[in-house]
Design brief:
The complex is a heterodimer of chains A (455) and B (458). Chain A is an alpha/beta fold and 455 residues long. Helix content of chain A is 45%, strand content 15%. Chain A is globular. Classes of the chains: A alpha/beta (455), B alpha/beta (458). The complex binds iron/sulfur cluster. Chain A: It holds the Pfam family Oxidored_nitro.
Chain lengths: 455, 458
């Protein structure tokens, strides 16, 4: 049985065994090998794909170095977001303040790159030394005539979710500052897709085929000018709810724009994401076009999916992702492939998320919040899974244990969204679950003593 | 095309870093700590730092990287992180049960001024540290130095916490290998083994970050220098430290603490630096160099003679960590190549002096910068083009933009494998590096050759 600290027991639930009472939203235990990140990380991942803006990280160099082009958020034009800019604070500025350096850096960057806007991220130390980042941004904005937006993302001031919030606040300042002319009644913004492997391009195309104008993609393949006029769209679609619900809510409050929560993963959810919009606009011609589109797209991938399903039926999977919302789609997508989800968890799920997961999953499924590698490895072994879906830190754990792995985080290199994405996903899962290497290596070999050895 | 905005004209910048050639101290401390057997590195700060460091190390080594965090929240940063650290120590021993917890600070805990030794001693008094278990610490403010400094600091802490002199000299040498790959540490041990020398290598990440697939996830793999070994370093006959920047401080601390005489050598990358390393081993341990090692050297020299025309006057730009660059620069010169632009992100006057010294005859006009960034390097390359670029993965942008052959070397390498499995130190490592340089040149030659000049034999 997996060894779990007393304090963490409430964050693990086994469906069917006990009444549902999942604890979550807790700060991680000090000393845990948590897979979670910080406020800065949350802000950075959300805003990063805005490709014609400067993203300046204010603080010591580390935070900027680690987030340099790790997201794979593709741009169809400018690539400014893929460079790494840091004020590289040194000891002297920690003592005397870094505002001067921040000012100089901004001026230099704006003069050289002529960006459409600049985002300034405050990291841990800025909160402590008390630089007035807002004032510097204001000054530069006035001098240079572009929006310069502070992002309050001091690492310790909460969790990744608070970083999402800070990013949404910054976006809200931008939205509404551009002209809303020329926007059709059937128009949307796509929120919370980060265009990993070009996913937003596919989604955009679906909606355009339905006859809808896409005003802004926030933030995948994002452009400042689009975002500035995003208040003119008739509807907001939120894909990554964890990161963008907050913005959608604020837009509803401020501009009255309604929003829908959607998911682009798996054919069921993808189709539903299109139908939801067609229903919203209540236009029969659009509905007909949507039906055709869905039919054609599914017809194109389904026969191949069935092939993969044959090989994958009966295999078991474990899912550990950042936000819980993605997990719903993954459970469903795996089902289409004939696979069962035996373990599912997230870093930041809410109580409702976990409840929904419980309803979705089979008996015996382990549901876990803010897990650590030791627990995760224990669950993988206990359930005898064939596939682990997670992020960069989970990959080598799976491989060491002899289990297939699929990155459904920001390191994915192929598009997993959309109908084609489902096929890509199936292919990737098949490739790793059925790899011949697993026949040649030990898998979850017996525990070799020591509490720490999980396998 | 990603870097199409880079202007060739260099304008001095005081404030801004563009595309850094370094990162912050804690990650170096984390890597060094992983080289102690049964050690869990612990990051005293907020969760983000720890997550970033683990992700970056994971991408580079393709191994599970374990490290815990104090999970600072706003409260901790106002009232200090004492409660978090004490609780962390307690939790870590309860659930992960390491032999050692190696605490390093972050910019946050440094700035709020947490006194880690005092907190640790409180934890000890409160009985939170089980008998026979240790908590060591090092101070790694990220606004000082770079990741290399962090590595040096944690290695020095190993000495401060563990080295002891019992008064009886042991017939063994200490080797501090610097921030090199697990494969390099393995190679150093292989060489000293061939020479019949007993050594304590610290830190030692071989068998920690290059582990075999066993069907099991080992939280603490079998490798790493053990505590008794670390203790015994105070009784060793001498210390050989490789790389002034990463290993010098620990070697000097050991000399001061336990009177173990030390020599600080360059990293044994390339022919001459390896010669000096082997010679230092021979003299210090009082052994003779076995034929097998002389033969390895001979094969390396043979390879260079066979292929020297390909290296002649090739202009090279390189960036990375100072110890690596110093050794690599000398190696390139010995191959008749011309290192013309050299950038490290790690600050330090000594670096520029050493490089100028090595190049004074061959490239007196070298562009060299400590505390530079890869934007500057790119600008230099634009105004004075090169035939080869050597550096970590981030160099791929420049290589693509300028269409230059590129050899990945250093930290981090996120998009290739091999670095953690095959050494670049020693004679064998030099052969591997040469192979890489040659492939880069020859692939380019084949690619660019006109139809009528495309030939089978090169
Ligand atoms: S907050 Fe400081 S210590 Fe942490 S990653 Fe950023 S620069 Fe490094």
């Amino acid at each position: 049985m997996v060894k779990v600290l007393e304090e963490r027991k409430g964050q693990i639930y086994r469906k069917g065994s006990e009444p549902y009472a999942m604890e979550c939203g807790k700060t991680s235990l000090a000393g845990s090998v948590s897979q979670r990140a910080c406020v800065f990380c949350g802000s950075r991942v959300v805003l990063y794909p805005i490709a014609d803006a400067i993203h300046l990280v204010h603080g010591p160099v580390g935070c900027a170095a680690y987030t340099w082009d790790i997201r794979g958020a593709l741009s169809s034009g400018p690539e400014l977001h893929r460079l790494s800019f840091s004020t590289d604070l040194r000891e002297i500025e920690v003592i005397h303040g870094g505002e001067k350096k921040l000012y100089q850096s901004l001026v230099e960057l704006i003069d050289r790159y002529q960006p459409r806007a600049a985002f300034v991220y405050s990291t841990c130390i800025i909160g402590i030394i008390g630089d007035d980042v807002g004032a510097v941004c204001k000054r530069v904005s006035a001098e240079k005539g572009i929006p310069v937006l502070p992002v309050h993302s001091e690492g310790f001031k909460g969790t990744k979710k608070d970083g999402y919030r800070a990013a949404c606040e910054a976006l809200l300042q931008l939205i509404g500052t551009g002209p809303a002319e020329g926007i059709q009644p059937h128009s949307i913004n796509i929120l919370g897709d980060f265009n990993l492997a070009g996913e937003v391009w596919m989604i955009r195309e679906y909606y355009e085929k339905m006859g809808i104008q896409v005003v802004a993609t926030i933030t995948g393949d994002g452009r400042v000018d689009q975002i500035r006029r995003a208040h003119g769209a008739a509807l907001n679609l939120v894909q990554c709810s964890g990161s963008m619900n907050h913005l959608a809510k604020m837009l509803k409050e401020k501009y009255g724009t309604p929003y829908l929560q959607v998911s682009y993963f798996g054919i069921e959810d993808m189709a539903e994401a299109l139908y939801q919009v067609a229903r919203f606009f209540n236009d029969t011609a659009m509905m007909r076009r949507t039906e055709e589109l869905v039919r054609d797209e599914i017809a194109a991938v389904y026969p191949q999916l069935l092939e993969y399903r044959k090989a994958l039926t009966g295999k078991k999977a474990a899912i550990y992702v950042g936000g819980a919302f993605k997990a719903f789609s993954l459970v469903k997508a795996l089902r289409i492939l004939g696979m069962q989800t035996a373990v599912v968890g997230s870093q930041t799920g809410s109580s409702e998320d976990y409840q929904q997961l419980r309803d979705l999953c089979d008996e015996g499924t382990v549901i876990v919040d803010d897990s650590n590698p030791l627990e995760l490895a224990g669950f993988l072994k206990e359930k005898g899974v064939d596939l682990f879906i997670g992020g960069v830190k989970e990959r080598p754990i799976a491989y060491k244990m002899g289990i297939g792995f699929c990155d459904h985080n920001h390191e994915r290199k192929i598009a997993l969204a959309g109908f084609v994405g489902m096929l890509n996903f199936a292919r990737e899962v098949h490739g790793t679950v059925c790899s011949p290497i697993w026949k040649l290596v030990p898998r979850y070999s017996c525990c070799g003593g020591g509490v720490a050895d999980v396998g | 095309m990603l870097l199409r905005h880079t202007p060739s004209e260099v304008k001095e910048r005081e404030a801004l870093v563009v595309n850094p050639a370094k990162t912050c101290q804690p990650i170096g401390a984390m890597y060094a700590a992983l080289g102690i057997h049964g050690c869990l590195p612990h990051s005293h700060g907020s969760q983000g730092c720890c997550a970033y460091h683990r992700s970056t190390l994971t991408r580079h080594y393709k191994e599970p990287i374990m490290a815990s965090t104090s999970s600072f929240t706003e409260g901790a940063s106002v009232f200090g992180g004492q409660a978090n650290l004490v609780e962390a120590i307690n939790n870590i021993f309860t659930i992960y049960n390491p032999d050692v917890i190696a605490v390093h600070t972050t910019c946050l805990s440094e700035t709020i001024g947490d006194d880690v030794p005092q907190i640790v001693s409180k934890a000890k008094d409160d009985g939170k540290i089980p008998d026979g278990k240790y908590v060591i610490h090092t101070s790694t403010p990220s606004y000082v130095g770079s990741h290399v400094t962090g590595f040096a600091n944690m290695t020095k802490s190993m000495v401060n916490y563990f080295s002891e002199s019992s008064g009886t000299e042991k017939d063994q040498l200490n080797i501090i290998p610097g921030w090199v790959e697990p494969s390099d540490m393995r190679e150093i041990k292989r060489m000293t083994g061939m020479m019949g020398i007993k050594t304590v290598l610290f830190p030692d990440t071989s068998d920690v970050l290059d582990t075999p697939q066993t069907g099991k996830h080992h939280l603490f793999p079998k490798g790493g220098v053990t505590i008794p070994e670390l203790r015994s370093t105070g009784d060793s006959r001498a210390t050989i430290a490789l790389g002034q920047f990463a290993s010098g401080p620990a070697a000097e601390a050991l000399d001061a603490k336990c009177k173990v005489p030390c020599q600080v050598l360059d990293l044994p990358i390339g022919l001459m630096a390896t010669d000096r390393f082997v010679d230092a081993l021979r003299k210090t341990a009082g052994v003779s160099v076995p034929d097998a090692i002389t033969d390895e050297r001979g094969r390396l020299v043979d390879l260079i003679t066979d292929m020297h025309q390909y290296f002649y006057r090739k202009r090279v730009a390189l960036f990375g960590d100072p110890d690596q660059l110093i050794a690599m620069t000398e190696f390139l010169v010995s191959l008749d190549m011309l290192p013309v632009h050299i950038v490290t992100g790690t600050p330090g006057q000594r670096f520029e002096q050493r490089i100028r010294e090595i190049l004074k005859h061959d490239v007196p006009q070298v562009n060299v910068r400590a505390a530079g960034d890869s934007f500057l390097l790119h600008q230099w390359i634009k105004s004075e083009p090169v035939d080869l670029l050597i550096g970590n993965t981030y160099g791929k942008y420049i290589a693509r933009d300028e269409d230059i052959p590129f050899v990945r070397f250093g930290f981090p390498i996120l998009d290739r494998v091999g670095h953690s499995l095959f050494p670049s130190v020693g004679y064998v490592g030099a052969m591997r590096l040469i192979e890489k340089f040659l492939y880069a040149f020859q692939d380019r030659q084949d690619r660019d050759a006109l139809e009528e000049k495309f030939e089978l034999v090169m």
